[in-house]
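ARCHIVE CARD
Drawer: 12
Card no.: 0347
Subject: one protein chain, sequence and derived structure
Cross-reference: see card 0346
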Amino acid sequence: MPRRVTSVDIARSLGLSQATVSYVLSGRGREVGVSEGTCRRVEARARELGYRANRLARGLKEGCSRTIGVVAPCVTFAFFSQIVRGAEAVFSANGYVTLLTHTDEDAQREREKLDVLCSYPVDGLLIVPAVGRGGRQPFARLVEEKWPFVLVDKEVRGLKAPFVGSDDRAGARAVVEHLVSLGHRRIGFLCGPRTASTARARFAGYRAALVAHGLAVDESLVAGNDWSVQEGETAARKLLALRRPPTTIFACTDVSAMGVYRAAAARGLTIPRDLSVAGYADLECAALLNPPLTTVQQPAEELGRRAAEMLLAIIAGRSKPRPRLILPVQLVLRGSCARPA
């Protein structure tokens, strides 16, 4: 391991005391009365020698590590990477570094990752929960041990914890109301994993809109239990094979909506002439589909930013107990929906 340049090395090279150099390197030199000339000499020599601050040592001295653990289901999926990007911007602007890990939507892996992060000197945790059947136990333990943490996007059933999410119920309701306004009455719904609070909220919005318009909630028009393209295609094929198939399918995510496009093509159906399709999330792929997908825009980066701000407030003791923030969503109308034939 290469030897680190320390404040002692800089002090010796300049003939100054280590205390003076340490004050300057910590950014407090001018505050405690070190002259401007001396501050500049120390800063110049630090750059010349390639000095890097020892964040761990400084954190131990100050009682914090200036490090945040971030747990996400999949860092290559655009929605989650945007959440992380938004959070990291806030952490970086406030002098924190991010320790990122992912769970692949696996509850056991999530439990293991949380255990590992809690063994490090992190100041807090920002978590996008996995959809697996892991239960509330690992999160309840965080509450019991008084860890500063914030859940993002998905809540954990039965757990009262700081949370930042989007209004999934309202977003799903807006989609169904738009489809009803076009004249659709048989509206299929592709649901995500029922273990995910987001899937449950979107299904609740779907049901609420149907009831509000006097339409029956037909369970035969509800299918799917996953976010994937493959499950979207399989579920859509099932709905389109019904004796009275839906005239439109609302997929719980844009990814599963891509599967609906594939199922429609396999049956020789043209979107939106023969089948209207809507999705959820407004991922980049939504605007690139042919025709472009009507969907609901979630403020992914803002979710990350607001969650990071909430976590830093909790760490600083400036937050109310178990804060909860729900951000609005927006219906994005494109070319995949039309009046039924």
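Annotation on reverse: The chain has a mean pLDDT of 89. The chain has three domains: 7-53, 64-166+300-327, 168-298.
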